[in-house]
Amino acid sequence: MSLYLRQVEREIAEGNPTINSRRLGQLLGLSDSQVRRDLGWFGQFGYRGIGYRCQELVDRIREILGTGRPWPVALVGCGHLGQALLGYAGFSRQGFAVRAAFDRDPQLIGQHIRGIRISDFSEFPEIVGREGIELAILAVPADQAETTAAQIAGSGVTGILNFAPTLLNLPGPVTVSNVDLTIELEQLAFAVVQHRGKR
Amino acid sequence: MSLYLRQVEREIAEGNPTINSRRLGQLLGLSDSQVRRDLGWFGQFGYRGIGYRCQELVDRIREILGTGRPWPVALVGCGHLGQALLGYAGFSRQGFAVRAAFDRDPQLIGQHIRGIRISDFSEFPEIVGREGIELAILAVPADQAETTAAQIAGSGVTGILNFAPTLLNLPGPVTVSNVDLTIELEQLAFAVVQHRGKR
After folding, report:
1. For range A158-176, the mean pLDDT
2. Which residues pair with A113 in a beta bridge?
3. ipTM of this complex prediction, to 2 decimal places
4. What is the mean pLDDT of chain B?
5. Integer Cα distance of A66 and A145 in angstroms
6. Window 49-88 of A, Cβ < 8 Å to B
7. Report field, pTM of the whole predicted structure over 0.80
8. Which of A135, A188, A190 to probe the B interface (max B CBs under 10 A)?
9. What whole-number distance in Å separates Cα of residue B14 and Cα of residue B130?
10. B19: which residues sit within 8 A by CB, 6+ positions away?
């Protein structure tokens, strides 16, 4: 659904008010019946002879994804990766607002990065409660990920996006997504090999 | 295939020499017929009554993905994101070796990060040729991504992994993968919403 969302947003940026399943499929490398099936799964929102109204489709997909409203986010770990994520333009564009940042390093605590003050991780539960934060981005070293995630989960946050190159398995009601950046490199290598095979 | 690879590697790490399609499916949230179909696509390498031999499966998937041999990689852009990627443990674990790093900032050029010297981007074609580099990781600001990518493509690199939050469309034989970190946050938000609905 994220891929559909990106593509339809691009259509709007290019000034196209509508798109049909055939064109959407071509752009995404899918058959038009696949597109109709995917989007039809969430209700009937195509128009005969018109296709989809782009803005309506974007609103509906955002609603489905849960990103129709802003999500307040906390960043935990303000090393290189954390600081890069603080400045990542895509997050705020899609409704994710980093409201607080945390570290344990006294050298970092109190510094401001892109307008966000880095707080001591010991203040995490208090600040998360006050700011109504629901999601946390975890960007700490691998050996600290498990214990830090457990502390985050204990303070009412419902989702953790884990960038540490270690797989987290937390019990309880918190949802964890593990980001594996190597998969992106693998897919690129695979695409390069396929591409060579065709020449 | 990357997800299969990770899961089977985990089985090996836990000391399991074999795995069957049912268990692999359970771990990945797929039906066993889906697993057999996915893996069967690339040839017959299951054994009746045993399932798959984990090491054989890993070797075969790596061969398919093109990661059965090391890929020399260059990093372009050594800001926070670039430096975080230089230290990303997952890359070398899966056979990607960052052999050279580049920036345009005189303050960064000549510095060493995790044993890699940051070179001037003007030396890119020469160093890439010498080191036999095939893939480049692009971690420059969005407004420099397009021109930098065109220069990279002009020097014989066959694949670019683009972390800049802008979509690259390069002509010619170079393969580009655009990484969109926001998709990961969207999927987490979606999972959290689904999880709440179930309670």
Report:
1. 86
2. A116
3. 0.77
4. 87
5. 26
6. 64-67, 71, 73, 79-81, 83-85, 87-88
7. no
8. A188
9. 40
10. B8, B11, B51, B52, B54, B57
